[in-house]
Design goal:
six-stranded antiparallel β-sheet, 1 helix, four-stranded antiparallel β-sheet, mainly beta, 12 strands
């Protein structure tokens, strides 16, 4: 059976029409245009990518006072996509990014690249494209991690990090 945002005998309201027409709409796109230093070690909410180039934010989920977060303006199903670009470094064996919701890592939210040695080139780790259910007020962050042995900057230019949110439907 196909998805229906309302049931028979329900009134068609502006909210229901807006929910139905927004399904599949990309509502947020941001990137990191300048370098951001990420300490060596595991992932931590304190190191979340701070978005400084907001391409668009149709529902007003991002605010400059909390630049790492996109906050769901309504309850619903959302699809997260993104990636973290790291500057070149041969140190360590791991580069990763992790989706966090409300300050904690979520199940299925980790993407990692590792090997015996890292090449001295920028590395982009694509976050897992992930469907999530969010309540109004829940916030999402993309958290980078690396183990080069020293702080490592997020890449700029064509390797820059990004985050995208698409509305997938009401709960």
């Amino acid at each position: 059976m196909a998805f229906t945002p309302w049931l028979a005998a329900m009134r068609i309201t502006a909210t229901r029409m807006n929910d139905a027409s927004m399904i599949g709409a990309q509502v947020f796109l941001a990137d990191r245009a300048t370098a951001q230093s990420i300490p060596t070690g595991g992932d931590a909410a304190a190191n979340a990518c701070s978005w400084d180039d907001i391409q668009f934010d149709l529902l007003g989920g991002w605010v400059s006072g909390s630049p790492t977060r996109w906050t769901a303006p309504r309850s619903g199903r959302w699809t997260l996509a993104g990636g973290i670009g790291f500057d070149a470094s041969t140190g360590g064996t791991t580069r990763e990014c992790v989706w966090y919701v409300n300050g904690g890592a979520i199940g299925m939210g980790r993407a990692r690249s590792f090997g015996n040695t890292m090449a001295s080139v920028p590395v982009t780790i694509e976050a897992r494209t992930l469907p999530v259910q969010l309540a109004m007020g829940d916030y999402v962050e993309l958290v980078p991690a690396q183990n080069s042995g020293a702080a490592l900057n997020l890449a700029t230019g064509s390797y820059r990090s990004y985050m995208s949110v698409t509305y997938s439907g009401p709960l």
